[in-house]
Specification:
Blueprint lengths: L5 E3 L6 H8 L2 E4 L4 E6 L12 E7 L6 E8 L2 E6 L2 E6 L11 E8 L7 E7 L2
Antiparallel strand pairs: 1-5, 2-3, 2-4, 4-9, 5-8, 6-7, 6-9
């Protein structure tokens, strides 16, 4: 899996938010911890894992979007356990997922909301 992450405002120039969101991720396989306080880019080294779950507390956001790239993974994004974005069909389908750029709005809110990104493949 290739990943690159940014959190951007409308002007695409909020470097502080980008830096705050790119570090400090809890990475697991859904059950066991694979890394603590890791950079987002570390998930790219876990291509042997079929399930990767990244969790992080969000900074305050107003009209910001999250952008990253994956290859071959179903993706689900949740904020405080509410689904805000999905890509990919059932893992049992015959669909083949190639390179995908994901870009979606983060709900506006205060510091401390939990963002979870779930990557899965068969």
């Amino acid at each position: 899996m290739y990943v690159n992450l940014s959190l951007r405002d409308r002007a695409l120039s909020d470097k502080v938010s980008t830096n705050r969101i790119s570090i400090g991720w809890h990475i697991s396989d859904g059950e066991k911890t694979l890394a603590e306080a890791a950079p987002f880019e570390q998930v790219g080294t876990l291509k042997h894992e079929q399930n990767v779950v990244l969790t992080k507390n969000l900074p305050a956001t107003v009209d910001q979007r999250l952008c990253f790239v994956t290859i071959g993974y179903k993706v689900e994004a949740l904020v405080n356990n509410h689904v805000i974005y999905t890509f990919g069909s059932s893992l049992d389908s015959e669909a083949v997922w190639g390179v995908k750029t994901h870009l979606f709005k983060i709900p506006d809110g205060q510091d401390g909301r939990e963002l979870q990104l779930v990557f899965s493949t068969n």
